């Protein structure tokens, strides 16, 4: 077996459920021996771990589309890993695979769900970002639900992130006008100057709602919702008749707990607008569009090769830094697709 037997596994477990923002106490770092693969199994060494907003939901026991993690379980997560030893006919030592190994350095797999990656095709970390789940989420949600047409205005929040950056660029590829909402001048400059967004608005600005209205003089035809909260409040009055709203995420709300906020009931007013402006507001989880994945991979690879689709990764070294990096993701401290480099390639 080629792994160094002096290696130890490091695993990060859910220690307790956060009520609001996660803290260091919600995680346990635990050392364990490197496991030995049984017949039909492979031993994986994790190279990259993807950190994604959905992990906040898995830490909570609130009912959702996926089962919550149990206390004491290894934190879930998509990973890129190297096969260190194989007793599985489909995989050889040295293969690089996309796996779902979670927040740990080593893992066993029986091969279920593993996908081989070709390091000559693209940097393997992109399988967690622009060519992975977040890129696919942007593609499927925007094109299937948002259906942008040439000349229309598409607005996306968390626009410099893994999903949002792809949404805005695909909107432009389809001939629409892309307006990005992001936190801070650096992210806004990146969207305008590097990714070619047509307009950008900083949601930290005191007059954010006015700036957004000025950036959308013809109203909004597609709003790709990643955030919720005050961003949604500013967007909603600008939606045009027949506007489409793919509801992908509500990250501004993930740390707020489950109780509804105090205040007047504004649902009747919202429903009246849905009716009178013929709005389509449609939530989705990317897995429902799984049959579009081959088409996405082909198109996205072509757009990357032609320079129409660019990406930025925010790579943090060391698995032990995952809890703090994850806290930062929920506060906008990441700049680009957040990935933990667990081991050198
Ligand atoms: P990301 O955009 O790379 O990172 C999260 C970003 O959200 C932060 O950088 C920050 O950007 C913004 N943010 C965080 N807290 C915020 C707040 N309170 N108010 C406003 N903005 C805030 O993350 P991602 O992976 O691309 O995910 C984006 C969204 O897509 C999330 O809501 C996620 O849950 C959702 N998602 C859904 C699916 C699905 O199947 N439905 C799949 C993947 C992702 P700024 O600094 O620019 O504010």
TrEMBL record:
Keyword Glycoprotein tagged: no
Keywords: Oxidoreductase
Domain Enoyl reductase (ER), residue spans: 23-340
Pfam families referenced in this protein's UniProt entry, alphabetically: ADH_N_2, ADH_zinc_N
InterPro entries, per the entry: ADH-like_C (IPR013149), ADH_N_2 (IPR041694), ER (IPR020843), GroES-like_sf (IPR011032), MDR_fam (IPR045010), NAD(P)-bd_dom_sf (IPR036291)
Positions in coiled-coil regions: none
GO molecular-function terms, A-Z: oxidoreductase activity, acting on the CH-CH group of donors, NAD or NADP as acceptor
Protein name: NADP-dependent oxidoreductase
Organismal lineage: Bacteria, Pseudomonadati, Pseudomonadota, Alphaproteobacteria, Rhodobacterales
